[in-house]
Description:
The chain is an alpha/beta fold. The protein is 36% helix and 24% strand. The protein folds into two domains: 2-107 and 216-246, Rossmann fold (3-Layer(aba) Sandwich), CATH 3.40.50.720; 109-212, Dihydrodipicolinate Reductase, domain 2, CATH 3.30.360. It has a six-stranded parallel sheet, with helices on both faces. A five-stranded mixed sheet has the order 7-8-6-9-10, with helices on one face. The model has no long low-confidence stretch (mean pLDDT 95).
Amino acid sequence: MRIALVGFGKMGKITAEAAKAAGHEIVAAIDPLAPGATAKELNKQALHGADVCIDFTAPEAVLDNIKKYCALGVNAVIATTGWYDRIGEARQAAEKSGIGLVYAGNFSIGVNAFYRIVEKAAEIMDSLPEYDVFGVEFHHNAKKDSPSGTAKSIEKILLEKIRRKKSVVEQKLDRKIAPEELHFASVRGGSVPGTHAVYFDCSADTIELKHTARSREGFALGAVKAAEWINGKKGFYGIEDMMRELVK
């Protein structure tokens, strides 16, 4: 497969190595500033010969990039987070153009397995009202969005599966939390690649579910796997569609 990397920062470079190790060819690395980039702008010439683009750019650039992938007829993996308020526009553009596009808050296969574990646990704990539920996520001090896309996905699972929880509080709490509220906190600092934890707690004991990323390599490997999966497809997909095929 011939892959174009759009955004050639830390994640772009790690993904390039992961793609090469999997036997794929990097035909373009597009970034206005990064050393080693083959082009500064996303256009037809820069994407020449690419089967799939993997986008690790910035939230404010994603929708414009998606429109360019659509116009140029190139399938895409959107690994950037923090743009989901415009997801309807992205879906409409992809479906109208006939390209294939897959997006995720986190492409780590381990994280996506963790989602399924949280889902099963939440189904069990829904029947045990004595247990409260809450979560926390940690990321490095250069991360631009808060809470993370992964945290947002976990929140959605918990709200869907635990009926006594009706809404999420993500900001600082200067009051007693209401029983129907789910608190999911975010911490930023250091060089942490990403840690997400969910807690089920009562006066007798605590159940903790946690995923800790050791490095950014897991995100890169998942993005390459997603590129393999979306190659040749048409339509707008979330990573849960891919996981349904991988995990029966």
